[in-house]
Amino acid sequence: MLRWLSIVFVLAVVQSGGAAEPALDGGAADLPYESLPEELPFKIAPREGRLWHYPCLKCHADMKPNPQERKLVARHLDELDHGRDRIWCLDCHDAENRNVLRTVSGEQIDFDQAWIICGACHAKQQRDWYYGAHGKRVGNWQGERIIYNCTHCHDPHEPAIEARAPLPPPPVRAGLERQHHTVTGTHRIWERVGDMTPEGSREER
Amino acid sequence: MVFLRYLWDSFKQLFHGSALYWVWVIFLLLIIVMGGWKYLEQLDQGLIVTNMSNQVSWGLYISNFTFLVGVAAAAVMLVIPAYLFDRKDIRDVVLLGDTMAIAAVTMAILFVLVDIGRPDRLWHMIPFIGNFHFPQSMLAWDVIVLTGYLLLNFGISFYILFNHYQGRPAKRKLYFPFVLLAIAWAISIHTVTAFLFSSNTGRPFWHNALMAPRFIASAFCSGPALAIIILQVVRKFANYPIRQSAIDTLSLTMTVSLQITLFFIGAELFTDFYFEGAHSASARYLFFGLHGAAVLTPWIWTALVMLLVAVTICMIHNLRRNTVYLNIACVLTFTGVWIEKGMGMIIPGYVPTPLGEVFEYLPNFTEVTISLGIWAIGILMFTLLAKMAIPVEAGRLRHPDAGDELRETYLEEDAAESPENSEGEEYEAR
Amino acid sequence: MKNDKSSVEKTTDGVDYYRRKFLQRLGLTTVVAVGAGKARLAWGGRTLEDAFADFFQQHYRRMTPEEMQETLRRIERKARQQYGVEITCEDTPPLEGVVFGYAINITKCRGYRDCVEACVQENNLAPDIRYIQVLELDKGSLDLESADRYYDRDSVPAEGKYYLPVQCMQCDNPPCVKACPVEATWKEPDGIIVVDYDWCIGCRYCMTACPYSARFFNWQRPQIPVDRINPDTNYLGNRPRPVGVVEKCHFCTQRTRRGRQPACQEACPTGARVFGNLLDPDSEIRYVLEHKTVFRLKEDLGTEPKFWYYRDA
Predict the structure, then answer these.
(1) What is the distance between the alpha carbons of residues B237 and B241, in angstroms, rounded to a whole number?
(2) Which residues of A touch B358 (CB under 8 A)?
(3) What value of ipTM does the predicted structure carry?
(4) N or C: more exposed end of chain A, with fewer CB within 10 A?
């Protein structure tokens, strides 16, 4: 009975923490990561309102972490299509506190600061994102710069963006019909010219 | 006043005509009414009643405009020998050439008017009241040169006719500077029209230096071709003698111009097809079709064949001097240049679009009807103006108080030329 | 002539009589004219006053602020009469110290056409006009002649293809501005090439001059579906256009001059579009242009487009 009460108590505490206003900053308020500038040149659209299972401690407070790298059969994650088996869950998720993430060096960071982790491997994209050549600025082009976190567009467990159907093709002028003229010829010279194996194949030489 | 009497006397001439004249006038009026009807439809619904599109945004109207500016410019081919080389035989017909120019320029202006999306806003082009973008816009230049040419031709012809009506020769000191101006101006109207197209860097089919020379050369084919036919009609139906030497000179002009035009077309073909790149796409569309789109190819090849046959006829002396063959050559030339400089020049500039899209265009019934209506207006205008001018030039229409000064001047000139006149065959066609 | 009493009275009244008659008639004419002016006659259902004011409306750059306000209200009345919709029309001036630039990341563009549709909605486009054309090209070449703008697939991006959205390049050296015979199109201080739809005469010479096929003509009165009319409009931007005039992308002046992103940038789900102030050295657009591999279409023509393409690498 006491065990159940303590769980309820812990859950209540955690729920109240999770019900706080999600911070609209780079997570700077509780920034443990010190090599970033104090003042980021942008604000990040918060993730925490959009995370399905947050706060994770709802369940994980009571579950013993298992640091053994293995294939999971969890309810909310049975496939990790990221990194081709080079990484696994606890590389990004903090084992002790599932409400936060962990950097490569083990520091705890907010979900809103997930970009720090992504950038550890994807440094080029992170640099581009930081300065605006990658990702999306929302709202205004001037004044306060609010941008999306990486995970807004890229599901970290399946980051590749899927193909989808495009919107319909454009019309021609009202009253006229579409014309269909097929383009022949190709710039794929190798298709036009054919096989260009030199005299004697590589195996023979 | 003499002036009002002149206007009234001239106006009365319009009602003295044979049955054929009246049939002709009524026939033209019917075509004009049909064209006007369709134009009202266009005014009501917008240019959507045509076949033009965002891809091919200029069509039959501008094609006709381009061709007609050339015909108008070719009046200079009569003005130069008449006034600069003092050819009396051509001076007899120079006013008819001016009248042809007036009708052609009027048609050209009308074709631009029917092509405009908002004709109710034309006042926007008036300097100071509106906003006239001169000298940057080539269209602004075109407005000035066409209006000026119309006024020049009208002014000079009217001045000369008015004086002849009073039985006296026009004062050469007064009109000769304007004649010189008109000669230069004639070249300029067609050069400006060519620059309208050749200034577009985004359209490689037009963006070349040969456009202006080509336009002038083909103008001097189509203008004389039309003039030769008109002069024969006048000779037959209007009781006005036309010396054969005038027609001979015009046919020689046409011959040389045809040769130059075909040379220019050949130069264009070489430049486009020796090493084809993206810039040759429009030429390929016109002559051979592009990606399956080829509505214009039969037209351009027909035009080329017409011009080649015409130049062949003209280069053979005996054929050129034969009325039947000459007229065939004139019809072939006129039609061939209409195709080559009209639809064959304007439409390929838009196919493919600067973004590479092939979207074809052929005019529809509305456009053809309106175009025919405008042609009928021009032809009727020429008919009526000629009907007013010829009696004056033939000496039949004079103010009651007219003197003999003009007649005496003509007699003096004829006497000076009498060795030629005694051959006596120049008033008849061979 | 009978010398009856009435005619005698008239003659003795003399000038007074005729003056009275004249004033009466003048007064009646004025009342009728004013009434006719205000009344809705067969001037396309508009008042005579509005129709006249429309006809004599001056060029945008020559209107006084009062004339502009009157014009804006007249435009709002016209929209109410023509479409049955209440719109607001403002004249938003350009911002100081701003020249707009736009860049598209062609590694990211996947050909969805979300930008195309967003533009149609935002700018009250007629159903047959699209300011943005997305070209599908074969990887390995930039040959526009083999581009397909009408692709209709189950999924994009297609194998071996890449996508190039094209819209008005807002050239810094615009051929269309030079071509217009009435100066109905010009470059604004913030770099946007705008069209005064009430000044354009519809000659379409600018469309001929444009090397990017970026300008479009209203061949008929735009049949904008009434239920999707965007009521927040701008004089030089997305207000409903009349028949017979040219229009084109204007970088959403109604949005961008108020600091907002253009509709196409907002709609793009992949974040391929970067828009901003070229004069701000800290802007994203400047970062892109100074650090990425960029190119512009038909740069060799000398049009100086303010619309770039770049790649991730």
Answers:
(1) 10
(2) 179, 181
(3) 0.92
(4) N
